[in-house]
Design goal:
This is Alpha/beta fold hydrolase. Keywords: Hydrolase, Signal. It comes from Prauserella cavernicola. InterPro entries: AB_hydrolase_1 (IPR000073), AB_hydrolase_fold (IPR029058), Pept_S33_TAP-like_C (IPR013595), Serine_prot/Carboxylest_S33 (IPR051601). The chain is of the alpha/beta class. Among the domains are: 38-131 and 170-230 and 417-491, Rossmann fold (3-Layer(aba) Sandwich); 236-328, no CATH class. It contains 15 helices and twelve strands. Helix 4 packs across helix 5. The radius of gyration is 22 Å and the shape is globular. Residues 2-30 and 336-350 have low confidence and may be disordered.
Length: 502
């Protein structure tokens, strides 16, 4: 899920004949279609091609309005070794996945790139796939619970939900995970493939699990990296971020205390935590300007989700906290070492075509439209108080009221993920704060005997493949060697936090 708190969740439909609420039929024989492949952009490699797949807006009305889903392709490097297509999704919800074959795809082992056409896509409602907009001027950022302002927060949140729903009422209800899964099968058919393989990260794991459940006959190999717990969709997944943040920040606090002579954040982990809490209180009340950007408490909380995994990440965050403290104290916020490194933006050559609030709007459409959220406002008050005490960094934010509390009932129930006939491989970092191990463990149990998990023990990062000790397990599976006989665990090859190699 996306690391950005303003989208809460952190970092993406099918032509099968199943109608809304009807049993899912077996996938039709692929007829293929004459996709008009062309170079995605003059700025992209010539062999990186894009095409448009036309799908029903509402699969219950297949002869009604249609929308466009844009897909991309990097052909298998060795046509003689080609095994099929590998459809990729980066997460979100709300993330573009069109350039994923160029970004994540470039890091895949060569034998995988030799053997698969890498297929990216913008999920429905996102990027170049009929983008939606709620007309949000500043996006949506959930607020920390404050008993004195809670009633106003409820009113503001309800107003935002109503404004969003009234902006594109014809599109918004159909931007859901189940419809995106249906679009995946439409993509499969358009490509002329009997089955497709799938690689999903973060939210992409939930999409992959839903696709596998709805269209079992369309699936070849499935790799789910950094898993969402389908039984927590969606409020529970938002709430579990608070647990992950506490774990990661504790590691960071210990790391920073050991380096107090350099960063001056506190001589003990408790001192570092106290400084952090003080900054949160101050920035919630009065944000500061840093490098031309507004930094409030939610920015600090959002970045805290990244703390803990490596020395480099911790060094960046430690400097960031020092500079924020200086700005809050009215002092120059000079850089003293490494700058805070943001993840590189996914190239988007079509930004002018996409509403500025598209990602936020798609996020809300999916997390509010997939499953029912509690309607009782007082439940949010109680949960925010309780979780704020239990998880001081994020608990009062992740359990606070959200626009989903005022969303209409979903048009169809969320998919119940259960035992699968297809083979599914989960890969998970043991200390991932954004999709904690508890979610992956539950998904592994739900999927049953045809699933396996490759656990990377000791890693705090979000996203395990490629680039870790589980690579060989995933690659062998994709190359046709089958699943491991049992779940596997390996120790991360990267140095531990504070260890050698820093």
């Amino acid at each position: 899920m996306k690391r950005k708190l303003a989208m809460l969740c952190a970092a993406a439909t099918t032509a099968g004949a199943a109608l809304v609420g009807a049993p899912v039929a077996a996938s039709a024989e692929p007829a293929g279609s004459d996709l008009a492949w062309q170079r995605c952009s003059p700025d992209e490699p010539e062999n990186f091609q894009c095409a448009t797949v036309t799908v029903p807006l509402d699969y219950a009305d297949p002869d009604g309005r249609t929308i466009d889903v844009t897909i991309s392709r990097l052909k298998a490097a060795e046509s003689a070794k080609r095994k099929g297509v590998l459809l990729m999704n980066p997460g979100g919800p709300g993330a573009s996945g069109l350039t994923l074959p160029l970004t994540t795809g470039s890091r895949l082992p060569q034998e995988v790139k030799d053997s698969y056409d890498l297929i990216g896509f913008d999920p429905r409602g996102i990027g170049r796939s009929t983008p939606i907009s709620c007309g949000l001027e500043h996006g949506w950022s959930p607020m920390p619970f404050d008993p004195e302002t809670f009633d106003q927060t409820v009113a503001d949140t309800k107003e935002m939900a109503n404004a969003c729903l009234s902006k594109q009422p014809d599109l918004l209800p159909f931007i859901t995970t189940r419809n995106t899964a249906r679009d995946l099968d439409a993509i499969r058919t358009a490509l002329g493939e009997r089955t497709i393989s799938y690689f999903g990260i973060s939210y992409g794991t939930y999409l992959g699990a839903v696709f596998t459940e709805m269209f079992p006959d369309s699936v070849d190999k499935v790799v789910l990296d950094s898993s969402v717990d389908p039984e927590r969709v969606w409020r529970g997944m938002v709430q579990i971020w608070a647990l992950g943040a506490e774990r990661g920040f504790q590691v960071f606090a210990e790391w920073a205390a050991e380096r107090d002579a350099e960063y001056h954040l506190g001589e003990s982990a408790d001192d570092v935590s106290a400084l952090f809490r003080d900054l949160l209180t101050r920035l919630d009340r009065e944000p500061v300007r840093l490098d031309g950007e507004t930094v409030d408490g939610n920015v600090l909380r959002s970045e805290a989700l990244s703390a803990g995994p490596t020395d480099d990440v911790n060094a960046d965050y430690a400097e960031f906290l020092g500079r924020v403290r200086a700005a809050a104290d009215g002092e120059p916020a000079a850089r003293t070492g490494a700058a805070l490194k943001q993840a590189p933006a996914v190239p988007n050559r079509w930004q002018d075509e996409v509403p500025p609030d598209n990602s936020d709007s798609a996020f809300l459409a999916v997390v509010c439209g997939d499953a029912v959220w509690p309607r009782d406002v007082e439940r949010y008050r109680r949960d925010a108080i309780q979780d704020g005490r239990r998880y001081p960094i994020l608990g009062a934010v992740t359990s606070n009221i959200a626009p989903c509390a005022f969303w209409p009932e979903p048009r169809e129930p969320a998919t119940e993920v259960g035992e699968v006939d297809s083979e599914v491989l989960l890969v998970q970092n043991s200390h991932d704060s954004q999709t904690p191990i508890e979610g992956a463990a539950n998904l592994r149990e739900l999927l049953g005997d045809n699933a396996r998990m490759a656990l990377v023990d000791g890693s705090w990062e979000h996203g395990a493949y490629p680039g870790n000790c589980a690579d060989s397990v995933v690659t062998r599976y994709l190359m046709g060697d089958g699943l491991p006989e049992q779940d596997t665990t390996c120790q991360t090859a990267k140095p531990p936090v504070g260890g050698s190699g820093s």
